[in-house]
Specification:
alpha/beta, Aspartate Aminotransferase, domain 1, Aspartate Aminotransferase, domain 2, 2 domains, three-stranded antiparallel β-sheet, 12 helices, globular, binds 4'-deoxy-4'-aminopyridoxal-5'-phosphate
Length: 346
């Protein structure tokens, strides 16, 4: 592994519990869980155990609400497509700082009926604006993530959920950056998570469809996942994902480390700005903007010396590429060119 890896929002290394669970499951339960002979039945039981354990780790509730996917991108695409097709006249309100795996399908499936919601300077959803959109009528769904992948800003999920309920809208919450780093939100209708953000393997994730979202489906095909997501399940990946989440991380200690790190940098490079400093943030994420006039080469040198940091999202990497998140927060090009994101592990 890179000696100093500060890009855990892009992906995390496989945890040892996940690795062990993956190997054991791949060896012991390689049969197709949908086949009819006894070893396949054992694989099916292992799958359902993993589903129950995941539901428990997400705060309890009916395990049938959990649908396994190939990651958060698939889950976001499928859920939004399903919401859009089942309510063809309803509008969707989406936060301007959503991950591309939410923004792109929302723009595609809700073309002509999408409301893009603004953000505060601190990277939080503009709640009064969202409330106005909901009160205006016609908005059937809202997509606001739990924690932003670039800035780490935590969103007021409870308040958004309350607003959605009051106005009869479904709440889709991409929690890929929060799951494994803080308690999973309970009161959202569609909850999305991704294993590789918390020590699980890449290419595995899940959706939890709550009571009001049980009618949603992800992809057509075989009868797997209660007919909501056709396709043979990646059982080793699923079991490894659950093992990683169960292992957990002491994230509480991370907020202290984050704050000390930010103070240290501010002491050495006066004028350094911490993006979303005034918002509640993920305990591991620091997005910094170095003041104009400072040589940016030390940041490049970090990479050459084995320190892995990024400019923001792995989905739009490179200092020159823009950040739709910072743009939505009101930062101009000269500022976002000087950004770097440091994301620690537990
Ligand atoms: N949503 C957010 C907030 C993310 O940070 C990511 C990963 N960059 C995704 C969705 C996509 O997840 P996956 O890699 O599992 O498709």
């Amino acid at each position: 592994m890179t000696p100093a890896y500060f890009d855990h929002n892009a992906t995390t290394p496989l945890s040892s519990a996940a690795r062990q669970a993956w190997l054991e499951t791949a060896d012991r339960y390689w049969h197709n869980p949908s086949s009819l002979y006894p070893p396949a039945g054992a694989a099916r039981r292992r799958l359902e155990d993993a589903r129950e354990q995941l539901a428990e780790l997400l705060g309890g509730g009916d395990s049938e609400e959990v649908v396994f996917t190939s990651g958060a991108t698939e889950a976001n695409n499928g859920a939004l497509a399903s919401i859009a097709s089942l309510a063809p006249d309803a509008h969707c309100a989406v936060a301007a700082f959503e991950h591309p795996s939410v923004l792109a399908p929302a723009r595609r499936h809700f073309a002509g009926r999408l409301v893009e919601n603004g953000t505060t300077r601190e990277g939080e959803i503009d709640l009064p604006q969202l409330e106005t959109a909901l009160a205006g009528g016609g908005v059937g769904s809202v997509a606001v993530m739990a924690a932003n992948n670039e800035t780490g800003a935590l969103q007021p999920v409870g308040q958004i959920s309350e607003l959605c309920r009051r106005h009869g809208a479904l709440y889709h919450c991409d929690a890929a950056q929060l799951i494994g780093r803080g308690p999973a939100p309970r009161d959202v209708d569609v909850l999305v998570g991704s294993a590789h953000k918390f020590g699980g393997p890449k290419g595995v994730g899940f959706v939890r469809f709550g009571e009001r979202a049980r009618h949603l489906t992800l992809q057509a095909g075989g009868p797997q996942e209660n007919r909501r997501r056709g396709g043979t399940e990646d059982l080793p990946g699923i079991v490894a994902m659950v093992a990683a989440l169960a292992e957990g991380v002491d994230w509480a200690s991370q907020a202290g480390a984050r704050d000390r790190f930010e103070q240290n940098i501010a002491g050495r490079i006066p004028g350094t700005e911490v993006v979303a400093a005034g918002a509640p943030r993920l305990p591991n994420t620091s997005m910094l903007i170095v003041p104009a006039g400072r040589n940016l080469k030390w940041l490049t040198r970090l990479g050459r010396n084995g320190v892995a940091v990024s400019t923001g999202s792995a989905c739009s990497s490179g200092a020159e590429s823009g950040s739709h998140v910072l743009a939505a927060m009101g930062y101009g090009r000269t500022r976002w060119r000087r950004r770097r994101r440091f994301c620690r592990a537990g």
